[in-house]
Amino acid sequence: MVCATIALAGLTRGFAGFGAAMIYMPIASAIMDPKLAAASLLLVDATISLPMVVSATKICDWRTVLPAAGGAVVTVSIGAWVLTNADPYVLRWVLSCVVLVLLAVLVSGWRYTKAPNKRTSFGVGAVSGLLGGMTQLAGPPVITYWMSGPLPVSVIRANLITYFFFTSFGSFAAFWWNGLITQELLLLSLLICPAYGLSIYLGAKGFSKSSGKSYRLLAYTLILGAAITSMPILDGILR
C-alpha cells in the first residue's frame, strides 16, 4: 500500500513539480506513524528529484525562489518539533484540512494580483516551512502563491522544484535534530525509492506532452482524492 501510494505521489511530482506530499502524507499517515511517513518522503524525494532540479534551475524565477526558501529554513525546525510531540490522530486531521482548504483556494480561481516581491515571498516561505516541518506539506502556500500569479506553467513548475530542493536541506537538519532519522526510516526509504523514482520519470515525460489546463486539472483531482480518502472519519469504511 505504501509503495502504491508513493508511486502515485511520484507521478504527480514528476508531472506537476509538486503534490507528492499532498498525496503521500495523508494516506501514509493512516498506515504508519506520521513521523515516519514525513521523514521517508523527505529522504526519497531529496534523492530522486535531483535530475529534475538541474533543468529547473535554468528557468525558475530566482527573485522569488530564494527569499521563499530562506523563510522556510527559518521556520521548519518549529514545525519538526510539533511533528515530534503532537498526537498522530490530530496530525492526520490537520493534514486533510490544510490540503482541502488550500486546494479550494486554487480551484476557486483566486489570483494573487500584486507583483511578487522579496518580503511576500519570504512570508509565504515561512508559512510553508512551518507546515513542511510539521506535516511535509510545505507545498500548498507556495503553490497557491505562484499558481495564482501570471507566471507560465513551465516557470511555476521550475520554481516549485527548485524551492523544494533548497528547503529539503533545512528539513533534513530539523528532522535529524528531533531524532526522526532512524534505521527504520532508512529501510523503509530503500523499499519505496524504486517506485518513486520510476513514477517521477514517467510523470516528467507526461508533462512534456501536456497543456497548462491538463496540468492543473490532474494535480487538483489527485490531491482532492487523497485528502478525502485519508480522513480519519473514513477509517471504518476504507481501512
Order of helices and strands: HHHHHHHHHHHH
Arithmetic mean of pLDDT: 82
Which class do the helix and strand fractions yield? mainly alpha
What does the oligomeric state look like here? single chain
Number of strands: 0
- Radius of gyration (CA) equals 16 Å
User: Percent range for helical residues?
Assistant: over 70%
Distance between the termini: 11 Å
Tertiary shape: globular
Question: How many DSSP H or I helices?
Answer: 12
Biggest sheet features: none
Residue windows where pLDDT falls under 50 for at least 5 positions = none
Strand content: under 5%
Summarize the helices and strands and which ones pair or pack.
Blueprint: H1 2-16, H2 20-31, H3 34-48, H4 50-56, H5 62-85, H6 88-107, H7 118-135, H8 139-147, H9 153-177, H10 183-207, H11 212-229, H12 235-238
Helix pairs in contact: 1-2, 1-10, 2-3, 2-6, 2-11, 3-9, 3-10, 4-9, 5-7, 5-9, 6-8, 6-11, 7-8, 8-9
Pfam families: TauE (PF01925)
Transmembrane segments: 40-57, 64-84, 90-110, 122-148, 160-178, 185-204, 216-238
Organism: Pseudovibrio brasiliensis
Q: What does this molecule look like?
A:
The chain is an all-alpha fold and 239 residues long. The protein has helices at 2-16, 20-31, 34-48, 50-56, 62-85, 88-107, 118-135, 139-147, 153-177, 183-207, 212-229, 235-238. Helix content is 80%, strand content 0%. The longest helix has 25 residues, at 153-177. The chain is globular. The termini are close together.
In short:
The chain has 12 helices and no strands. The protein has helices at residues 2-16, 20-31, 34-48, 50-56, 62-85, 88-107, 118-135, 139-147, 153-177, 183-207, 212-229, 235-238.
